[in-house]
Amino acid sequence: KIYNNEMSSLVDDKKRKRMRRRSASDADNVTVTEQPFEEEQNKTKRRRTSKNSEQDATPKNQEVTPQETEEEGSVIVEAPAATLASSFTDDNLFLSLPIAKEIKQALTEMGLVNMTPVHKEIITQGILGKDVYGTGQIGVAKILSYLLPAANYVVKAQYKRRHATGAMIIAPTREVALQIHALAVELLQHTEQRATVVMVGETKISEISLIKTTPLLVATPGRLLDHLRHTEGYFVANLKYLVIDEADRIIHKGFEEDMKAILKLLPTTRQTMVFSSSQNKSVEGIVKLSLKEGPHKIHVEAPKVPSAEGKVQGYVVAESDTRFYLLLNFIKKHMNKKVVVVFSSHSATATYAELLAYVEIYVTAVHGKQEYRKRAQNMMSLLNAEQGVFFCAEDTLRGLELPKVDWMIQFDPIEDINDHVYRISRVKDNGASLIFLLPTELAFLETLKELKLTLKAYDFPKNKLGNMHLQIEKCVKKVHDLQLLVKQGYKAYLCAYNAHTQPEIFNPQKLQLLKVGKGFALEVPPKINFKDTKGEELHVTRFTVAGGFKGTAPGQPKKTDIRLIREGAPKPGRRGFGRYGRN
Questions:
Q1: Which residues on neighbouring strands pair with residue 14, listed in sequence order?
Q2: Pairing of strands 241-244, 271-276
Q3: What is the DSSP code string of 401-421?
Q4: Which residue intervals of 199-303 are DSSP H helices?
Q5: 50 C-beta neighbours (distance < 10 Å), count
Q6: CA separation, residue 280 to residues 158, 243, 274, 529 (Å)
Q7: Would you say 357 and 351 are in contact if contact means Cβ atoms under 8 Å apart?
Q8: Which long-range contacts (CB under 8 A, 24 or more apart) does 194-202 make?
């Protein structure tokens, strides 16, 4: 105790000596002029009154631009700026817009020169700071229309790392978010501002440091809500620009409640743009929560003459058990071209790509069953590669600006005719579009004729298919994991077929499911139960003769035939079921 007391007293003496030396040196070098507190207070009052008088002297119609103040620190406040309404010209050139010169340089390098009237209207309202509600078939080029004002805002506002998010864009899918992010990076390449993307699939830890320091954020609804609720230190007080792209598709994917929660967590003093191709009560609810009263409305009707008019629309009529092998033979002959094959479901896309890999035919697949990094890599390859074969789920292509391709092949039934028209328009002049149809689906050709497309029938000789199908069937039998994947693809194809919007043409009861299973390299298709378009439950039932039983139950399908049987239909007796048992 005595030792500790002596040591503490020595330390205190040394501290006192140091303080005396510092005070003495400061007194010798610096001359301090004391000011009374009243004079300092009067000076601050004068500064405030001068600022208020300057603000009052400015006209009311001037645009307000954000600038940083020393007092606020990490919060961006608004200060008056020159009006922008008179700076717009009548021409449709990007370079004539009142935007930052760095963005103009990026637009020149990207080869963008002219704007369409609709896109010019969106960009003009976005730069002026007004809310926009866009409906109808605006087109996929709207990405640039709302992204250009967002990039211009964060550049002119001079956002710093500590300001966090200033502009936010909510996309319906990961593919659309990746494409928006890629375009934002190009627009901001000559500036100090950066853009980032957050979505389900990437690790959340790696995103936390980015969203706290990046002014332009692209996100999907689920991951964005997760960060807003659980990421410590992430604030959105400086958010001034919000875009909700394809609001109807976001709601269709089940994110309506997430969007309502997101809008409640965001600041209300902001500019908002909402785009939706269709209108319903759910979309109107999101619009009321996000937009102010009296937004600028833009509606574009679907064009009467589609942009794909005059394009060659080829079609192939094939049975369910041979169409995949016809596609395989076609791909082997066009590996040096850029070919995009569209499927109706993610599982079917993954199944066919995996089946080709077992016979050493490698394609690039883009679907929702992949991991984030693999999916993003394949998506960038689809957008930038000059040649290759790409298997894509129809849902992943919706809303994307596709590059020019040599062949656009629709393998499964078309879900949305407008999306199909856009995909046909992306075919090169020396290329063609191809669609596979079953003999029971020929009525769909009348729909294609209404689009003023040039129909052309292709005939692939079946005797030149070879024995590739035998090799694939052997692989499915031997590899258990591949067999499970094939069954999932088979079920997904039937569910997508049953949910089609044109049941009078694509009727699941007309399918011969034994042949459909053969098309997936399955000898015996699995059972599947789902509901049809009328809400009635359907059962896939096998009827065959095996195990010594002969004949079939009266009034039931013939031998070795598999069909969809409605619930409530007369059930067959024990005779004819064989080893497969009851429903």
A1: none
A2: parallel
A3: ----EEEEEE-SPPS-HHHHH
A4: 204-211, 221-230, 247-252, 256-265, 281-290
A5: 10
A6: 39, 19, 14, 30
A7: no
A8: 195/151, 198/223, 198/224, 198/227, 199/174, 199/223, 199/372, 200/174, 200/372, 201/174, 201/371, 201/372, 201/373, 201/375, 202/372, 202/373
- CA angle in degrees (0–180, nearest 5) for 103-268-157: 25
Q: What is the DSSP string of 533-549?
A: TTS-EEEEEEE---TT-
| Segment 245-265, tens digit of pLDDT | 989 889 988 899 999 999 999
Q: Rounded distance, CA 240 to CA 548, Å?
A: 75
Q: What does the pLDDT average to over 70-92? A: 50
Band (pLDDT 50/70/90 cuts) for residue 77 is very low
Q: Note the pLDDT of residue 277.
A: 83
Question: Considering only CA atoms, which of 315, 353, 331 is closest in space to residue 520?
Answer: 353
**In the predicted model, is pLDDT for residue 70 greater than 60?**
no
* DSSP 8-state class, residue 195: E
Q: Which run of H or E residues covers position 147?
A: helix 142-156
Give dist(CA 274, CA 286) in Å, integer. 9
Helix 346-358 × helix 468-478 angle, to 10°: 110
How many Å from the N-terminal Cα to the C-terminal Cα in the chain?
90
> Is a pLDDT exceeding 60 seen at residue 287?
yes
568: left (phi over 0), alpha (psi -120 to 50) or beta: left
Q: Lowest-confidence range among 190-199, 220-229, 264-273, 558-567? A: 558-567
**Residue 428 in tokens:** 């090169």
The answer to whether residues 350 and 489 touch, using CB atoms and an 8 Å cutoff, is: yes
**Ramachandran region, residue 175 (left: φ > 0; alpha: ψ -120 to 50; beta: rest):** alpha
Instruction: Let me know if 124 is exposed, middle or buried by CB neighbors in 10 A (0-12, 13-18, 19+).
Output: buried
pLDDT digits (tens, 9 = 90+) for 520-567: 999 888 887 655 444 444 444 433 323 322 333 334 444 333 344 444
pLDDT band at residue 383 using 50, 70 and 90 as cut-offs? confident
Which among 399, 386, 47 has a CA at the least distance from the CA of 253?
399
132 backbone φψ class: left, alpha, beta (φ>0; ψ -120 to 50): beta
CA 437 to chain CA mean position, Å: 29
User: Is 381 in contact with 340 (CB distance < 8 Å)?
Assistant: no
Provide the pLDDT confidence category of residue 490 given band limits of 50, 70 and 90: very high
pLDDT interval class at 33 (50, 70, 90): very low
Backbone angles phi, psi at 519, to 5 degrees: -65, -20
In 3D space, the residue among 47, 52, 51, 58 whose CA is nearest the CA of residue 80 turns out to be 58
Torsions phi, psi of 351, nearest 5? Answer: -65, -50
Residue 131 phi, psi dihedral angles, 5° rounding: -75, 145
Q: DSSP code of 240?
A: -
pLDDT band at 375 (very low <50, low <70, confident <90, very high): confident
Residue 65: Cβ-neighbour burial (10 angstroms; 0-12, 13-18, 19+): middle
